[in-house]
Amino acid sequence: MSSVPRRVILRAHCDLFNDHNEIINTWFRFCGFCEDNETYLWTEGGHYVHVGAEVRDRFHMIVDMNKDHVQNPDLGRLQYEIWRVTKASEKSP
């Protein structure tokens, strides 16, 4: 779990819009902020999350990680990552 400030953009198909809270929680689990099946209280963890509008059948979830560690950020120098989100396919046994 890194305390480096960064912006993470999660891109997903609009069909997944109703699942955006679970997608965001899955991101925090992936980063090690909480255990599997736990809900991470990102508002208390110094992060900011907002959901962007639909663009070409996709929407964006913007996660500003460790936002409290940045004062007067230069958005041109802020580290960022873009991740494509897909729904896991179910495989038969």
Describe this structure in words.
The protein is α+β, with helices and mostly antiparallel strands and 93 residues long. The chain has one domain (14-56, 63-85). 12% of the residues lie in helices and 28% in strands. The protein contains one helix and four strands. It has one helix spanning 20-30; strands at residues 6-13, 48-51, 58-65, 80-85. A four-stranded mixed sheet has the order 2-3-1-4, covered by helices on one side. Strand 2 and strand 3 form a beta hairpin.
Please outline what is shown here.
The chain has 93 residues and is of the alpha+beta class. It contains one helix and four strands.
* Tally of strands: 4
Question: Cα-atom Rg, whole angstroms?
Answer: 14 Å
Total helices: the number is: 1
| Tally of structural domains | 1
Q: Which overall shape is indicated by the principal axes computed on the Cα atoms?
A: globular
Q: Strand percentage, roughly?
A: 25-35%
The CA-CA distance between the termini, in Å, is 34 Å
* Lateral arrangement of strands in the main beta sheet: 2-3-1-4
Q: Overall mean pLDDT score?
A: 82
Helix content: 10-25%
Question: Biggest β-sheet: count, sense, barrel?
Answer: 4 strands, mixed
Please supply descriptive tags for the structure shown above:
single chain, 93 residues, alpha+beta, 1 helix, 28% strand
